[in-house]
Design brief:
Blueprint (H helix, E strand, L loop, with lengths): L3 H4 L2 H24 L10 H4 L1 E10 L7 H17 L6 E5 L3 E7 L4 H8 L4 E10 L33 H9 L12 H4 L6 E4 L6 E4 L4 E2 L3 E10 L5 E11 L1 H14 L9 E5 L2 E4 L11 E4 L5 H15 L2 E11 L4 H27 L3 H25 L6 H30 L4 H33 L3 H31 L3 H4 L9 H4 L4 E4 L2 E3 L34 H15 L22
Antiparallel strand pairs: 1-3, 1-13, 2-3, 4-6, 4-7, 4-10, 5-6, 8-9, 9-12, 10-11, 14-15
Helix pairs in contact: 2-11, 2-14, 4-9, 10-11, 10-12, 11-12, 11-14, 12-13, 12-14, 13-14
Amino acid sequence: MATSNRSRPARPLVTLGLLVLALVGALLAGSRWSDASLMPKLALDLEGGTQVILRPTADSGEAVTEETIQQAIDIIRQRIDASGVAEAEITSQGGSNIVVAIPGEPDPATLDLVRESAQMLFRPVIVQAAPTPVPEEQRTPAPETPTDPVEPADASDPAWLTPELLAEFEAYDCTDPENLRGGAALVGDPAEPVVACDAAGTAKFVLGPVEVRGQDVDSASSGLRTTQTGAVTNEWVTNISFNGEGTAAFRDVTTRLLSLEPPRNQFAMVLDGLVISAPSVNSVIADGNAEISGSFTRESAATLARQLNFGALPLTFEVQSEQQISATLGSEQLQRGLLAGLIGLLLVGVYSLVQYRALGLVTIGSLAVAALLTYALIAVLSWTQGYRLSLPGVAGVIVAIGVTADSFIVYFERIRDELRDGRTLPAAVEEGWRRARRTILISDAVNFLAAVVLYFLAVGGVRGFAFTLGLTTLVDLVVVLLFTHPVMVLLARTRFFGGGHRWSGLDPVALGARARYAGRGRVVAGGRPADAGPAGAAVADELAPVPAGVAAPERRLTIAERRAAERRASQAGQGAPPTDDVTPVDDAGSERKDG
């Protein structure tokens, strides 16, 4: 039964054309009406950028530990990533400084985020909701006449919910990266309520005024929970201890929150304007030692403890230097990388033409389509996601040339194997595709899995290599499915390829195709249809030799075939015209009775 691609090969080609048009059209429209560029953005190693060296200092004068510096790096990275800047390099220098290198020309707002210090504040939760904005038709209508404000009794009092604050809360979008980058703009006035998102962007809150500050935290640690009897459980928790001032403040807060309904019985820990945890209170904490439990893993419990310890030591970032830096590799290395890619493409094209003759043009066309798709995708990602192409990323694209060429070679060799077995080209294309498809899918799946693992485990420029390798692997699948195979189906219907021209690369004689049995005592030259002309009209090995250059069939004749041959030979000796009144034989060589 014919496949859908065989009967309608134009459909996947049209789909591919629409995909390319959509990507190119989006780029052109974005370059005209938005800030898109037809050229992908380049990373720090190819374009240069701005370097800021910060020295964190504790407001209390205490020594800054490596753990605190690492938390500061995490905060700065969160700010920069949420600002849409990719490929930024943030490292520790000498255990005392933080070096931030941002590619291109960052805007002043991004640089301000780098310089700002981070604060840890504890606020009570008044309202909690989903992160998305409330539809306008469902929002709380503003009162027609102003109402007299009621003085809130405490930090958890719903009286803080003025019409203006409710309107801001309902319209707030915690899926917007701008609201997740942290910084002083999101911290707000400590004496006033604020609207805030959790750090993951999965919820939004109205938080009351600050009641406990980060410097009131004495220490924090993580570990397995220990019961009152001393037994150790399998539950990971974070333990927090407050100093004297913090102990008194936290005792008063937990006493009040214990009697409130959810979510007003929750206490939010806010770092850099984002909620990192909002546990509920189930007992009064009088001694200043609290245990935070929940669905923690070892890593998440340790992360929360590190964040709390950072809040216990408020830092101020002192700018040591700020300067423009040139590309470490520069345009010359980029040109060499692109030249290496072009040479690779040229060599693959020459090899394909030598090995596959005219069929090599399909390889060249497929590589051209893959190159166009890859370029368009990288340019769109640069525009929409802030992706920047680094030199390791260019290396990943070059490696992908070989990955893509492998897919075509596997497919073409399967087709040629089927031609050697005596199939016609249309049948060889379909059977070869059926056998090659599984190999191509497995190979690309392994490449993609390796790219994903490398991306998440590696750091620095290696992630750029892994990203482009994974992207081009997906492009390879798209091109093989939507271009290479449909084109082969169409070419199989042409006289040049389907007729086995010697320059097509699919000549059955040149490939050493074997003859095949076509039923009713007929043997057909390999690669020819059963009703072919004289070269395919032989009735048996004894009576019609296989054309020169085509291997003789290895299968022995059946009894019915021999009888048919003998009858034909007898009729030829008596001068009678040969007839075909033989017992029909199926393709397996067994006799069958008509009627």
